[in-house]
Amino acid sequence: MTLLEITLLAPLLGGLLLALLGHRPIAGWINIAVGMATFGAALVMALEVFEHGPQLSAGRMFYIDAFNVYLVVLTAFVGLTTSIFSRPYMRHEVERGRVTDRRLRLYHSMYQCFLFSMLLALSTNNLGVLWVAMELATLTTVLLVSLYRTPEAIEAAWKYFILCGVGIAQALFGTVLIYFAAESKLGGDRDDTLLWTVLHSVAGGGLDPAVITLAFVFLLVGYGTKVGLVPLHNWLPDAHSEGPTPMSAVLSGLLLNVALYALVRVKMLVDASLHTNLAGNLMMGFGLLSFTVAGLFLHRQHDVKRMFSYSSIEHMGLITFGFGMGGPLATFGALLHMTVHSLTKSAIFITVGHACQLAGTQRIDQIRGLIRTQPAIGWGLLLGTVAIAGFPPFGVFISEFLLLMATMKAWPWLTIPLLVGFGVAFAGLARHVQRMVFGEPPPGQKPVEANMLPVVVHLFLVLWLGLAIPGFLARWFEQATVLISGASPL
Amino acid sequence: MEFAALSLYNQAIILFAALALFTSFIMLAQARMMPLIFTFAWQGLLLTVVSVLVAIASGHPQLHISAAITFCLKVVVIPYLLYRLSARLNMQYDAEVIEHPTLLLLGGVALVIFSYHVSQSIIHLSGLATRNTIAVSMAIELLGMLLMCARKSAVAQVIGFMSMESGIFFAAVVSTYGMPLIVELGLAFDILVASILFGVFFFHLRDSFGSLNVGQFNRLSEANQPMPSPEATEPSSGERS
Amino acid sequence: MDSQLTAWALAAAQALLFIASAPLLAGWLRRVKCHMQNRAAPALWQPYRDLAKLLKKRMLLADNASWLFRAVPYIVFSAMLLAAAVVPLVAVNLPSAAIADLIVLVGFFALARFFTALAALDIGTAFGGMGASREMMVAALAEPAMLMAVFTLSMTANTTNLSVATAYILQSGLVLRPSFLFALLALAMVAVAETSRIPVDNPATHLELTMLHEAMILEYGGRHLALIEWATQIKLMIYAVLIVDLFFPWGIATDFSAMVLAVGVVAVAAKLMLIAVLLVVWETVLAKMRLFRVPQFLGFSFMLSLLAMLTHVVLETGG
Asked: Which residues does chain C have within 8 Å of residue B133's beta carbon, measured at their own beta carbons?
């Protein structure tokens, strides 16, 4: 059994086991154990890839290279820490009466299935399977979003289902078009035409530009919907605000990354066969639009989880913009930003989850005085916000700085909207968070049971990445950068 | 190629493709629940027939599997599920009010023209005599999307979703003789799960909103919320303290 | 020179046959309908008797009827006569076909309708005005649909000449053109609307709320009414023959030998009888629509013809 198989099978079997087991107090622990197994296998596998280069599984079903293996590790890691957070959190939700035991079983099972679908999407070599896995991720998260069964949750889940359904169908059409282009190039009677490795090797020889362009537009719309790029972002704040908080953390921290990963994979194909900047320019346009619009929307939010989901849209826009720009520096920055954003945003959602339990509401104007009632949560939220807003010494600052540098080199004029966007987003976050953290706590506000370990670990990692990127990690990012942009930034 | 010079098989493929496109338009204009579901089943049947014809005309026996999948899902399972659900929810005789039906149909025509225009640039890659049907498959997909966007009933949205899926499946059949088997099976699995989920959601929707009209969804709308209170706008001096 | 003369003679004979058999088609239609609805059927030649009776009757004109009112029946009848001369009934390639093409044919209909409406307004009764306005509404919606369907066919045949188009379709044999299917449906719906059949109009009623065509000709009597009734029957026949010609041309004569012509007569008679039966079934199963639903009905037919055009362009050309 290879490490990859363990990485994939652990969450799948874990999900099945949790579904069969039903609700027991031990379910939360099993969830964590499965997360640990996944993370451990992913980590060892990553080290192997790091040393021996890309791996192609037998039968060529799976392909692991520097780019996706680090996302696999990130996914497994955030999946693990969030499961650690979710055990006390969900127990508290049961006590508050928001979920029943039966739903908790659904929650645990779907949580692992969701992780499985993301890991499958990341590691598969087949563009068709990638699509299937993305759709599977949608289906599992729809169940998670509607977990509370309130009218709002149902509405959010329905919107999510329909909008992502429409979006992802476009991506399937794009995949069909890519298959069409590849098949007319390679001949019809082979069954490996949809494998990414095969496609990438023939792309240089020129797949038909018209078909590939069209395919990319469809794929951008499709996976872009899941990334939360702006005209198609409507589902994202709803789903984040109405689902359980651990789900918001993995949705924001991981699913958006995975969707963007799919987009970047496709962009690599398109770039190789088109030799123009078309794909990059489209991504830059949509990324910048999302970045700006989401920053503005931050200001008018009443719901704290909604607000941070807009912040996710903003950061995904920035990363898309970075990948779109495409030089080694920008790609390096975007990869780093993907990592630090995942870590920071899931830490924030974890803190916000506890804060909401503390205040008994998600409304910003009713959450007050966190730092006095429970300093751990208050400081966590404050530091997380400072980190996500891009303040030194946190890692977000470094990645944003790199992206700004790259922009200044390639598109000097675009640094102005970027800088303005940073300012606007910071103002939006600060005006809300400052009053939640400080402010006068309402009478009778009591601390809640909270496990702040994941937050500490995440923020520590982000801080570390901000102070000094460890050598092996830097080389790792460099390998991925070379893979994506074709040149090294160092 | 001159149309009359094609073999009868190919002509039949094109004819049935056109009929499937026609059913998309019917669905766009059909306000009543039962006929909508039946039209969808008809579309599935037409596409199944096309798949079988393509399989015979091109000598690709694996397309029979696609055809069987399409038949099972789009003609039997999903319409039956939708039928049973609307009967259970006692809404099989409901009709929704379609706003601007003429505009909707003209929009559909525009989408057909658009997909024709788009597919013109790509069909030269295909050596098939029936390659013009790629435009039709794209049109069916886009019309399904239009149906989803324009209609307020949850059932109509589901049918639009499934119709989109049918269009894409059809595109795969006529452009590349179907996708690799594993992808097709995965796809079928996803669609099956999705249709069951949709069914579950119908009950949730009815329990929460009293009907399947999603047009009344506005709890999460930001359009009519005020800005947060003005005292919040003061600069945050305490941020880094 | 001689063959030219024969051709013209044949053309004239065909036109005469056309207008002479139009009441027969109406009679057949009425008979089948009665059978279908379990009523006692009138004789097949009852329409001829009606026309003869009307022709013999004294004319009664309103006091304020102008010359227009008196001229309109002749205008309408001659428009239909000309239209009938253009449509190949038994044989194609007749010289009369060159007089006018499909677009002019639509023009003839429009001309007749225009003058009927004017005459209806001329007397100044309430019914006339109402009928005229309704008829114009139907026409405004039906004409684009018909033209679009006709264009689709002429795009396929590369001609707008009806006779040439028929010959083209005849010699191309069985071709499963989706555009033809849609055009056929569209044209059939337009024909139903234009010839005032159920569900758009009911030719057998004089109820004020439902009348369209009948409301316009209420003031006519005697010879005038006979001409208008006859013209209406010819119009129905033209539509039927048009559909038969364009979509099922098999059997029509392409040369002028007696045998072939005889086959042509028999074939067209059989096809018209069949079409009449279909029309009767259609009229029996459907109820008349409310007037406000008519735009939807015609909108659907327009959409069909648009779809016909689209499928022609998308699926049947190029590639």
From this structure: 315
Instruction: Name the residue among C173, C310, C319 with its Cβ closest to that of B112.
Output: C310
In order, the DSSP letters of B44-107 are HHHHHHHHHHHHHHHT-TTHHHHHHHHIIIIIIIHHHHHHHHHHHTT-TT-BPPPSSHHHHHHH
Taking the CA of residue B60 and the nearest CA in chain C, the distance in Å comes to: 22
A64 phi and psi, to 5 degrees? -120, 120
Residue A63 β-bridge partners? A56
Chain A positions in Cβ-Cβ contact with residue B181 (cut-off 8 Å): 191
- Residue to test with chain B: of C176, C296, C306, most B Cβ within 10 A: C176
Chain A residue closest in CA terms to B172: A176
Treating both helix axes as pointing N-terminal to C-terminal, what angle do A471-485 and A328-359 enclose, rounded to 10 degrees? 120
What is the Cα–Cα distance from C109 to C103, expressed in whole angstroms? 10
The span from the CA of A139 to the CA of C283, in Å, is: 50
Nearest to C307 among B1, B14, B22 (CB): B22
Contacting partners of chain B (3+ CB pairs under 8 A): A, C
pTM here is 0.88
- Which residues of chain A does B171 touch, with a Cβ-Cβ cutoff of 8 Å? 173, 176
Residue C152 token pair: 């689709």
What was the ipTM of the complex prediction?
Answer: 0.89
Q: Tokens 């992206």 sit at which residue?
A: A403
Using alpha carbons, list the distances in angstroms from residue A401 to A320, A322, A333, A407, B72: 15, 12, 8, 10, 54
Rounded to 5 degrees, φ, ψ at C65 are -70, 130
Residue-range domain boundaries for chain A? 285-490
pLDDT tens digits, one per residue of B182-227: 888 888 888 888 888 888 888 888 888 777 777 777 777 776 666 6
Please report residues of A whose CB lies closer than 8 A to that of B229: 365
Residue entry with tokens 């069209």: A214
Closest CA of chain B from C306, distance in Å: 8
* A429: nearest CA partner in chain B: B236
Contacts of residue A242, Cβ cutoff 8 Å, sequence gap at least 6: A145, A148, A150, A152, A153, A155, A156, A157, B220
- Whether A435 shows a pLDDT value over 50: the answer reads yes
Residue B125's alpha-carbon distances to A336, A456, B79, in angstroms, are 40, 55, 35
Compute the distance between CA of residue A261 and CA of residue A342 in angstroms, rounded to an integer.
13
Question: Which of B144, B183, B220 is the closest to A128 by Cβ?
Answer: B183
C172–B4 C-beta distance less than 8 A: yes
Residues in chain C: 319
Are residues B201 and B161 in contact, defined by beta-carbon separation less than 8 angstroms?
no
Nearest-angstrom CA–CA distance, A379 and B240: 11
pLDDT > 90? residue C273: yes
Which pair of tokens denotes residue B176?
A: 């590349």
Task: Give me the pLDDT at residue B229, please.
Answer: 57
